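Collaboration report, partner site 2.

Our partner group contributed sequences for two proteins of shared interest, and the home lab folded both. The records are reproduced in the order in which they were received, starting with the first partner submission.
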Amino acid sequence: MDCCGLLTAQKEPVPLKSVEVELQVRDHVATVVSTLNYENKEDKPLEAVFVFPLPGDAAVCHFSATIGQTQIVAEVKEKQQAREEYDDALSSGQQAFLLEESDQSPDIFSLSVGSLPPGESASIRLEYVTELAVQADDGLRFCLPAVLNPRYQPQGSEGASVQVTSVPASLVPYSLSFSARVSSPRPVSKVESNCSLDPLQYLNIEQTQATVKLAAGHKFDRDVEVLIYYKDAHQPTAVVEAGQASAKPGSLMGDPAVMLSLYPEFPQAVMSSLASCGEFVFLLDRSGSMDDHMNDSKRDQTRIGSARDTLLLLLKSLPMGCYFNIYSFGSGYEHIFPTSVEYSQKTMEEALKTVERMGADLGGTEILKPLQHIYSQPCIPNQPRQVFVFTDGEVWNTKEIISLVKNNSGSHRCFSFGIGEGASSALINGLAKEGGGHAQFITGADRMQPKVMQSLRFALQPAVVDISVTWDLPKGVSVTVLSPPITALFQGQRSLVYAQLSGQVGASSEAAEGCVTVKYSLAGHPSQNQLHFSLTPAQDTGLTVHRLAARTLIRSLEMEERESRREQDGGLKKKVVELSVQSGVSSIFTAFIAVNKGDGEAIQGPLVRRNVQTPGECYFMKNKNKSHAPPRDPLLQLVSLQKASGCWELDPALAAALGKTSEEVENTKPASVNQEVWATLLALIWLHGFKMDAQEEWELLAMKAASWLRAQNAPCVTECVKAGNALLGCNVQKVALGL
C-alpha cells in the first residue's frame, strides 16, 4: 500500500494523529477552528506537507503552532518573502511552518511542517471564515471536506506546484472530533447532518443559540455536511460588528463593518408567469470519475446515470418556442447540434437518443474549451442564454475558468451543479456567482433531479435588471461598500453585502438606525425592498464580518489583477498584499509564516520529507464492476413518453407506465373526448395521485401539459377527471390539475 503516499518506506505511520474542528456560526457566516495534532515517530527530524481542501470562498485568518510548551503565531507576509524565511529557518535548524493557497485553485491549501524533532508532538491551529450557502429548502450548508479528489490538470498547462494524490479513507490513520455553536437574530429550528449527531442543545429560552456535536466513532470516510435551519429564514437581517481596537481608525479593520443578508420576495403574479423563450445550453461532465456511484452504497446509481435521468426531465420541461443544445466534455468535448436548435418533438427525440448513449468515457475534465466554444456562438435575438454546467468538479485551472465566465457574464446566466463528494466549491460557486446564476451541490443520498429542476425554475423566471442598493445613514456616518455590485436576484435567494462604516458611528444616539433600499426592475415593474437596522454593534461577534469583508475585497482585487496583468505595474498586487497583511486574511500573493526562534539548540540531522494527504480514493486500486442497470423508475418511464408539446399519446407504453393494460385504459375513455386529451389527463392524475413527494421534479412538465389541455378546449373535462380517478384509484380534484 506504500503507493498511496501515506506510509513511509519502512511502513511506519504518518505523523498526523488527530483533527479537532469547532464551528462557530453567526447568522449566515461561520468561523471554523481546526486543530491538527502531529507526532514525529521517526528517529530523524521530519518535514511533512499536509495538503487539504477548504471551502472556495473561505478566508484563512489565523495560524499558530504549539511545539512542546512553546506557542508560535504565524504572520501574513508576501508569499516569496515567507518562503525565503521558511527555507532560511530550516537551513539554520529552526522549526518553521508555512501555509499557502494554491495558485490555481483557491480551495486548496498546503501546510509545510518543518523540522519536527524525533518523538516531538506539534499542534497546529488554523482558523478560517466562510459564508454558508443557502440550499433549496432554505437550509444553510456547511461542509467539512474529507476528500481532496485527484484534480484533473489540462494537457500542457503550467506546472501544478501542489502535487495532490489521494488515499482510501480506511487507511486514514487519524481521528476527527467536530462541534458547532450557532447563534442568529432568529430562532434555530433544527440542525441536520449526513453523519450521526448528538442531540441539539439550546443555550437560551429564545432558541437563538444552540450547540451540536458529531456523535462518537465517526470514520472520516466522507465529507461532514451540516445543514442549519432558522425560523423566518427569508427575513432580511443586518449584523454590525465593532472594529478591532488595535487597528488604525479609518482602516477596514479599525472601523465598524456591516453585513446585510437580503432576500427579495417578488410578487406572486410575476413569478407564476414562466418565460416561454430562452436558449438553454447544457454542459455535462463525462470524465472517468462520473462513473462513480452517487454515494458509497454500490447499489446506488452512478453520477453519469443520474445526470442522464436529469437531462430527460430537463428536456421534457423546456417550453415550446425555446432553443437548446447539449455539450459533453472530458479531455475533449462534443455537442449534439452544431449550434442551438429550436425545441420541437423532432429535436427533443434526437437529443434524448444521444443522451441515452452517453457514458463517463471522455477521459479528463477539460471544461475551459467547451465554454470558450459556447461563448463564441452568437446569441439568438430575444432568447436569453442560460448555461447549465454539471460536473464533479475536479479541475486545476479553476481561476481561469471563472475569469472566462465573468468576462461573458453580460450575455448569459450560468447555473452550476457540483456532483458527489469532493466537487470543488470554488469552481461550482464561482461559476454561478460570476455568471449571475445559482449553484447547487448534490452529495450523499441527495437526488439530483429536484435541485436541477429548482434551478430551471429560476432560469425561467424573468431576469431582474437595473439593481441598485442605496444607503440612508445618520449625519456624520458614511459607508464604503466592499462587495461587488449585485448582478442577479432570484425569488427567495440570499445576497450578502459587506460594507465599512466610517465617521461618528458610535457617537450617534443609542437608537441610531441605518436604512438600506434595494431597487430593481422585474418584468417591467419597478420594485423595492427596504431594511432598517440598528447601528449599535452586536456584542461578542469577534471579527468574522470584517474578515469576510476583507476576503470579498481581496478576491475582487485578485481577479482585477489577473485580468490586467499585462499592462500594469504591480499596483493591484501591492494593494492585495497590504490588505491581506492588515486584515490577517490569506490571498494568492501572501502566505502565513511561523518560525520558532526559541533559544534552544538547532535541531540536528538531515530532514526527511513526507507528504500527508487527506482521504479520497485510490484510483489505481478501484475495481469497477459494471452492475446491471436497475429497473427504470416509474416516474421517469411516464415522463419519457411525454411529447415536446406537453401531451401524451394513448398507447400500450403509457398503459404499462400507469400499471394498467391497454384494454383497461381504452375502455374507460369517455366517448366524447379524443385519445391525446384522455392520455394526458391520466398522466396528470397519476402524477398528482402517486408522485406528490417528487412534485418539484415534474411540476414544470405538468404545467406544460395543463396549458396544452387548456388550449384543446376539450369538452367534459370534469367527467374525464372522474373516470380517470376511478381507473387509477385516486381522488385528484380538477382544480389541482391546473384546469
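Second partner submission, folded after the first:
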Amino acid sequence: MGRRALLLLLLSFLAPWATKALRPALRALGSLHLPTNPTSLPAVAKNYSVLYFQQKALAGHLHICIFQLNHYKTPLVDHFGFNTVKTFNQRYLVADKYWKKNGGSILFYTGNEGDIIWFCNNTGFMWDVAEELKAMLVFAEHRYYGESLPFGDNSFKDSRHLNFLTSEQALADFAELIKHLKRTIPGAENQPVIAIGGSYGGMLAAWFRMKYPHMAVGALAASAPIWQFEDLVPCGVFMKIVTTDFRKSGPYCSESIRRSWDAINRLSNTGSGLQWLTGALHLCSPLTSQDIQHLKDWISETWVNLAMVDYPYASNFLQPLPAWPIKVVCQYLKNPNVSDSLLLQNIFQALNVYYNYSGQVKCLNISETATGSLGTLGWSYQACTEVVMPFCTNGVDDMFEPHSWNLKELSDECFEQWGVRPRPSWITTMYGGKNISSHTNIVFSNGELDPWSGGGVTKDITDTLVAVTISEGAHHLDLRAKNALDPTSVLLARALEVRHMKNWIRDFYDRAGKQH
C-alpha cells in the first residue's frame, strides 16, 4: 500500500467519499462514514415535514424519516473566545411520534462528517427503539457539514475560516442545542438525554458524555475508534483486520490480493502492459506509468470499503452490494499461483462485484470509490489538525504493500493543502486516551469484522464503561435498522444496549424523585 493510500486512511473516517476536487494525497479512503446521498431508500417510505426556524412549514416529501427540520441559531461560531459574537444556523431533525412527556427520554444523535439527513435515514436502530423508550429523536448536524456552515460559501475558503472546525466546538454546539430544546419544548426540560453516534459520531457521543455528563445520562458509541491515536494501538491493526476479513471469507483470497501488487508492477513496466491492464480491468481511461500507484491505492481502498460494509444482507451504502460481499468477491480469488495476467483478470472480477454488481457500469473509474462526495473537505481538514490516526502496513501481517507511518509526510501534505500542521497528541490530551476509567455510563459497541474496531474499546473498563462485541458485525451494524437477516450477535448487542439505556433512564427518574 502506497504513501498516498495511507494518508488517505487518515482522511477516511467511517465514509469513503471520493472527490476529484482534492489533491490525490488528500482524498478520502474509507472515511469513518459512508456516502450521504445513497441511491436507493428502504422499500417502505414515509412522509415527513420540513420546517425552518421562524418560518412556515414546507410541503412534505416521501422519505424514510418522519421529522421536523429546524435551523437553530447556535450562540457562537467560537464557544471558547470572547471577542466575537458571530452566530450561524445549525440544522437538526426532530421526531416525536413516540415521545411521552411523562417518563420519556431524548435520544440525541451526535452528527458526524456529513449531511444529517443521511444519518437520520441510516440510523434505523433509533427509530426501532423510540416507542420502547418513549423517546424523542434528535439528529444534530455537525458544524461545517451539510447545511450547517458557519461562514456559508466561504466556510472552506482557508484555514482562518476553518479554524472553528474542531470536535470541541461541535460538542459545545450539541450542549447549546440541548439547552435550547429543553428550554423551548414543553415537557422536555426534565427528561434524560442519551447521546448516540456511530464511527466519528460514536466518538463524539462518548466524548460528549465525558465532557458534559450533566447533560447526557449516558452514551452509545458504536464503532468508535477513540484509541486510534498516537501509539495507543499498533498502527497496523486496521489493515490487519481488513486482511483477516478476506482470509476468513475464502481460501487463498488474501494471498491472491497480496500477490496482485507485484503482478501489477511487472505488467506496468511496458507500454503494451499498461494497455493490457487498462483493458483487463475495464478502466474508463488509459493507464500511464504515473497512474500505477494511484491504481493500486484505488484497489486497496476498494478492499477497505468492502470490509467496512460486509453486511449479512444486500445493501446500497457505497455501492449496490450483495449479502456478505467479501465472500462473493473471494469466489474469484481462489488461486494465487497463476500467471500475472490470469491473476489480474480475477482481480477485475472481484472489483466488478463492488463497482458493477448491478451490471449497469460500462467501465471502472479509478477516481471514484463511492457514490457520494459530501463532507470530504471538512474531514480532510480535521484529519490535518486534531484527528490524526496512524496507519501502516508491512505486507506480512496484512495483504497490502509495505508502508510505514510517516507523520512528516502527512504534515507536509496538510500544510500544502490547508496551511496547517497536525497536532497528533491533542485528542488524547483533550479526551484522556486510555485513562477514562473515571467516566461512567458509556456503551462501546464494535463489530469484529469492522477494521475500525482495532482502535475501539473492546473490553469492559468498569461496570459502567462497557464493551459490546458483535462477532458478525461490520461498521456499526447495530445502528442500522433491524433486518430479518440480522445475525444473532447483533440482536443480542441491541438488546444489551437497550437494557443499559433503560437503566440510565430509570436511574435518572429515581434520582429526580428523591430530589423532590
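Feedback sent to the partner group on the second submission included the following. Residues 14-30, 33-63 have pLDDT under 50 and may be disordered. The first helix runs from residue 3 to 10.
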